[in-house]
């Protein structure tokens, strides 16, 4: 049963499991104690810190372990902002950061700070120049992910780090998605990571703060982890995390080549096999194991369930999945189609220990079942056939209004597609919708269909989206 | 090699280990995902929450898991204070709370709140009346531990909870030390615990907030754990924590009887075997597995090392251990001797799985080696013989000044003891000392020796402690 959601969490690496077992016996005591059990725990913690620091390319005394990547981000951002309070209160982030970063930014704003979001291009990448332009004299901290968690696009971290350096602004890099593949290139000031993304156990994040970076930990004092992470150290998990980081790095070069070929195959084949699909994210500057695409006229949650029933575990940034009513902020920032969104992230194999990662056969089978599943979902939703937009209806009227109020994605887009042939070329269709996804998906549909998106008007309820038929 | 520091951390319970192993395979995925791995993880998390809630005696939806007991306390306190911001800004705590509580209180004070510390008696317990008297109309939150972590004294939680209820003030109970032994008696509003204290793994704390208690989580938003604990859920460890809590509870009644007998033996025998020892903490209302005593004229760190070399792992609240220069705040609040302090906390055995806990033989051997080790340390520090205070020196002068500036405990007290015989009955000895422990230990010495502690005067450096010879 292929698991294609490694970017959410990866199964425990065999090396992590071995290290965890061993250190459950050796590393359970309080490392602050002077007795032999405490000293033994301290030795394990020190060794893990050295191994992790080597992988991150920092000094051991610059790195602390936190209970999660999320907490590493929260602590790193709040500590760096407080450390540079005198410089200013501005925080610069990209618009496609992980929600942990954006939530920390929102908390900072609520506490009276200011936040500047740097937009991204259609591939999800910031422009170094645009980023640099936002670094003023009052910026306390800048944040940029090493690579995007939803679409796999790598960010120009080295260039942005240079710009930050020139402006005297510390840069925090959220490296959660990329640490398995290698250290972060460029002169970052703070760096965060999360062990369960690289085959380590849950319960371990890491935060590196370069010497010389002003840093003032917030919250109640706690002497552990240099005062930067409160609570009893989770040494067995930390040891396992460090061991698995080292192990995945040893396998990274080979696995990257192998998975990149599989991802390229998906990127190339899906649009050939499935009509009306948009593959998103940078085709070249990307993580080796992540590929994301969106399917027009498809409900993301239904497609996920169908894939799950067929044995494939994927995730989705569609608004129609899980509890949220709004599409992923990443897809919104990129301005790409969000409906029927599927993220495929392939787990690595750990060659030395015989765990099978993603195989060619898994990917082949995925490509085999996907077209039928998408077609089935579209049929169920009454989606128009791919060619319907150019058909001319017998009853032509200059403009039409489609009331899709109260209908969730992908219905508003489907309704639009059904009637576009009912207006003449040059005529307009106005879609009334109160579904947040429509704001993203109607313009995206226009792009895919060669129709003109005129714009959005206010309406009594929801919004009115105006589309002009061009062909 | 007997490990007598269970109150710091207990070795992993065999049941916890089994549960951890099993859930490493089943519980590594993201429980927010809709695919089968995510659903399986969610089921494990839900089951663990139910088991833990049952042990804590609350509803499952009142309980969240945190990455540590410390974070449960920090989150519980900050959330409850924020939830009752309109009522007032006063936080009431006992003076012998765990440092996690006192650090959260200090952070609250630094942020403009006010903190009232309720003192304790010589056994380390608060008086319910004294506690109740501090609950005014502007108190947002009260905190009281179920039992003290350093001396084992149980607090009158039920009575204090009643007083809090009458005053309309929510009570947060830090139950870290007692949850292994049973649920907390009384109508608490919030409760915190820490798995590694009950034989669970590190990396798991719990926070229960009763329905109806106003609670506003602080810090960046995060949808997991009811918005009360940020970061990826550590499900394997949570499952192990819940399983071991259930397991230790099943064994608690028998183990309590067994360990209480061993502790009573230590409490009775140590003062018989070792001269000039003060056993501290309530003799009856106490945790079954903790006993603490202090040895006059002894350096805590040296004694710890000697015990460690003899195979016994204990901890100490002496100032002369670890990096701190001040004695434990618990011993200070109790007003008892802090030098040569030793806490013995006995691990439970897990009968069903054959792990050996503390045996009678371990305790016997401890009682066998302790007197010689204490005598050795005293000799090394040049401590006076037990009877020296009543000897009369040939050169009698009405008052003497002993300069112990720059000397660390136990030297100031040893110097005092050496010269008390050099003044006549009614005469005084003034000890100049800049060691924080002297403030506690000189009055304690007077109590043990039947001499009068006159008081403390300011001095150019440190303080001057005046003692009058009475016998």
UniProtKB/TrEMBL annotation, chains A, B:
Signal peptide: none annotated. It catalyses: (sulfur carrier)-H + L-cysteine = (sulfur carrier)-SH + L-alanine. It comes from the Bacteria. Residues 402-426 form the UPF0033 domain. Its cofactor is pyridoxal 5'-phosphate. PROSITE patterns: UPF0033. The keyword Lipoprotein does not apply. Pfam families: Aminotran_5, TusA. Belongs to the class-V pyridoxal-phosphate-dependent aminotransferase family. NifS/IscS subfamily. This is Aminotransferase class V-fold PLP-dependent enzyme.
